[in-house]
Amino acid sequence: MQVRIYRPAKTAMQSGRSGNAKSWVLEYEPAAPKQPDNLMGWLGSDDTRSQLRIKFDSCDAAVAFAKKKGLDYQVFAENARQQKPKNYADNFRYDKLEFGRF
Fold first, then answer.
1. Taking all residues of the chain, what is their mean pLDDT, rounded to a whole number?
2. Is the pLDDT of residue 86 over 70?
3. What confidence score (pLDDT) does residue 84 get?
4. 49, 55, 86, 95: least surrounded by Cβ within 10 Å?
5. Rg (CA), the chain
6. Domain 2-78, what fold?
7. Residues ≥6 apart with Cβ < 8 Å to 8
8. Where exactly are the structural domains of the chain?
């Protein structure tokens, strides 16, 4: 069984580096394709392992769990955080380009 280990990105509703950004997640790869339900039209699958998301404090703990259970795992490195320096005073610059003003 194939699993992936990664650190999830923070949601748009989070500020700072809290929440999901600290934990690592182990997820099973989907084994069966999703099919629409005839009555409701919802997507579903017979594969219940695709619903599992196991959280760990570190990547090493997730890898140790995968090795212990005999799972083939793939670790995805987290993307480097790109932060643009911003200055509040730039909002009031006299040479600032303004769109919508002719």
1. 85
2. yes
3. 82
4. 95
5. 21
6. Double Stranded RNA Binding Domain (3.30.160)
7. 20, 21, 23, 25
8. 2-78
